[in-house]
Design a protein that fits this description.
By secondary structure, the protein is an alpha/beta fold. The protein contains 12 helices and 8 strands. The chain has helices at about 45-50, 80-90, 105-115, 135-145, 145-150, 155-165, 175-180, 185-200, 205-210, 235-240, 260, 265-275; strands at about 10, 15-20, 30-35, 55-60, 100, 120-125, 220-225, 245-250. Strands 1-2-4-3-5-6-7-8 form an 8-stranded mixed β-sheet, sandwiched between helices. Helix 2 packs across helix 3 (about 105-115).
Amino acid sequence: MCAWQLREGLRTASGTVRWDEYGEAGGEPVVLLHGTPFSSYVWHEIAPALAAEGYRVLVWDMAGYGSSDQYAGQDVSLRAQGEVFAELLAHWGLDEPSVVAHDFGGCVALRAHLLHKSGYRRLALVDPVALAPWGSPFFRLVGENTEVFEQLPGALHRALVREYIGSASHRGLRPDTLEALVAPWAGEEGQAAFYRQIAQADQRYTDEIQGAYPTMRLPVTVCWGTEDTWIPFAKGEELASLIPGARLRPIPEAGHLVPLDSPAGLLGALLAFLKES
């Protein structure tokens, strides 16, 4: 059983989202955002390592993900997640934290900054969903047929989710790590939630902000797994070219799940970025 637990919660329009923090309360704040179909567990090695360096590290499960609420009719769109994140920052009393965002979390962080005026000291984007077009053929197939996939037998659904999540890793996930990522999507409630978040994925939420990337005026680094088969490395090069002053940091031998494929490599890149003057 996974020991990763988020002890705190905040009630939002999209249900209660779970969150937690590591490190000293007075440390420089760093907020970590996960992507889909993952949870804050992707940071289970990075978060304590950053805390050991003196940072106050905050993690959260997006609405409908991980240990946060899951229910029928829930709004788990990228629009809603951006609003929830802005609300969380206000709840935490953070004016300008450093933010590290992976996959869909990248879009969430960008929307909160560009649309909701959330201020960041620094922004690290890790293989983010940020540029059109996005969504694999499998992702689109499921999105167009969610009512069919929702009816899969539980064991078959779980096997599908296991294979899908596993394909995000280049090096291969340990069985316990894979199980921790699959578990929130198991059972009747979790199965419905898995297909709900895919059904609500819509490229318009990145289209709305993509044109504003050249207006960003804060330190940005773009970290990208060189072996990412979900979003190719070329997208990282394109994104870095659109954001003024952004630097691209390749993470060798890592797939899309960089925080789990190469935690040491990503941690080194993040620490170097966070400590830049």
